[in-house]
Amino acid sequence: MNWKTTLVAVGTLGVVAMFGATSAQAQSGDAQLTRGKMLYFNRGCRACHGINKRMIGPYLAGLESRRSKEWIVRWLKETDAMLASDSTAQQLAAQYNNAHMPKQHLTDQDIDAILAYVRAEEAKSQK
User: Fold this and answer.
1) Helix H segments across the chain?
2) What is the CATH number of the domain that holds 113?
3) Which among 69, 79, 82, 105 could bridge 86 via Cys, Cβ 3.0 to 4.6 Å?
4) Is residue 19 part of a domain?
5) Distance between CA atoms of residues 107 and 20, nearest Å
6) Exposure of 113 by Cβ count < 10 A (0-12 exposed, 13-18 middle, 19+ buried)?
7) Does the residue 4 lie in any domain?
């Protein structure tokens, strides 16, 4: 194999690898959105939280701009502890008639998936 053939072969493999990685990332993102949607509907999030409308609980659009990721994760994992110690959580509870969010037993991956779904739905509504 001469150097030109080698260069073309290596370049082609690089392009295939690049597009293959992009495709895998898209599939991974699609799976995360699908999981997030499933969790949002099956765990009862939508019963109290609209994406773009206020319901029994706060709307979720823009959540990540209003609260840090750490705060959101802690809230979803330790709601009772947050209500006992966090002034923001206490103010939210008071604002929403002390509606109590049930413990969800979510993993970090579940929370990431729900947040990804909320971001995707928010983006759709802005078009």
Assistant:
1) 3-42, 45-48, 63-66, 69-77, 79-85, 87-95, 108-125
2) 1.10.760.10
3) 82
4) no
5) 29
6) buried
7) no
